[in-house]
Write a structure and sequence with these properties.
TIM Barrel, 251 residues, 11 helices, 8-stranded parallel sheet, 41% helix, globular, alpha/beta
Length: 251
């Protein structure tokens, strides 16, 4: 049985006070529950303080991105070792905004995945198609490329440290989420790909989150789908009023 995994990706939102208020409420709400795994990914500048505020709790802290290099003359970048040093335990890689806004390629994402694991970070690897790709019938081809390329350097024994997040780009921040049937079809396909890459045991154990306009009103029906193991939540993770109900309904 895969434990549901609900992670909040704050993107470039919140100020220091609002961030601390949010994690204080989240820490109290989650308590010592073991029926769900909960995480937040703040902006880099708040990582250290948020990690301190959540130290010893059941809420994990991670980053939204990282550099593929361990150190050097890379102005504006942050290494995996730096993230670990300030308390991060995971990193989100391959998010559609990194791919489509900043031009990150499958090759770069794959290199980052390897660098993250080497630095001691767990990984949430994002995959997903645009509306144009879906309408052209290319959904499976796109997520297959994202998955297989993103995992190209990941050994079977390291797959326990990887979570997959299916994020249809056309549903991110648009208010239009995939139906449970649409999400289930892609999640089932991804699990089949995982079995082909690393065997049935790894495929059965790997958690696949859904991301794309997840909110309290739809998380329960999405989580009821067999191969949906959690959610990567954007805007609804920015407030206790919306994120705490998602934590409860996403169990």
């Amino acid at each position: 049985m895969r434990t549901p995994y609900l992670a909040g990706n704050w993107k470039m939102n919140l100020d220091r006070r609002a961030a601390l208020d949010l994690v204080s409420a989240l820490r109290e709400h989650v308590g010592d529950r073991t029926d769900v795994d909960v995480a937040v990914a703040p902006p880099f500048v708040y990582l250290d303080e948020i990690a301190r505020a959540l130290a010893g709790s059941r809420v994990a802290v991670g980053a939204q991105n990282m550099c593929d290099e361990p150190s050097g003359a890379f102005t504006g970048e942050v290494s995996g070792a730096m993230l670990v040093d300030v308390g991060a335990s995971f990193v989100i890689l391959g998010h559609s905004e990194r791919r489509h806004v900043y031009g990150e390629t499958d090759d770069l994402v794959a290199t980052k995945v390897g660098a993250a694991l080497s630095a001691g970070l767990d990984v949430i690897l994002c995959v997903g198609e645009t509306i144009q790709e879906r309408e052209a019938g290319e959904t499976e081809a796109v997520v297959r490329r994202h998955l297989t390329q993103g995992l190209r350097d990941v050994a079977r024994e390291d797959m326990r440290r990887v979570t997959i997040a299916y994020e249809p780009v056309w549903a991110i921040g648009t208010g239009h989420n995939a139906t449970p049937e649409q999400a289930g079809e892609v999640h089932q396909y991804l699990r089949g790909l995982l079995e082909g890459l690393h065997g049935a045991a790894v495929a059965e154990a790997t958690r696949i989150q859904y991301g794309g306009s997840v909110k309290p009103a739809n998380v329960a029906e999405l989580m009821a789908v067999d191969d949906v193991d959690g959610a990567l939540v954007g805007g609804a993770s920015l407030s206790p009023d919306s994120f705490l109900p998602i934590v409860d309904l996403g169990r």
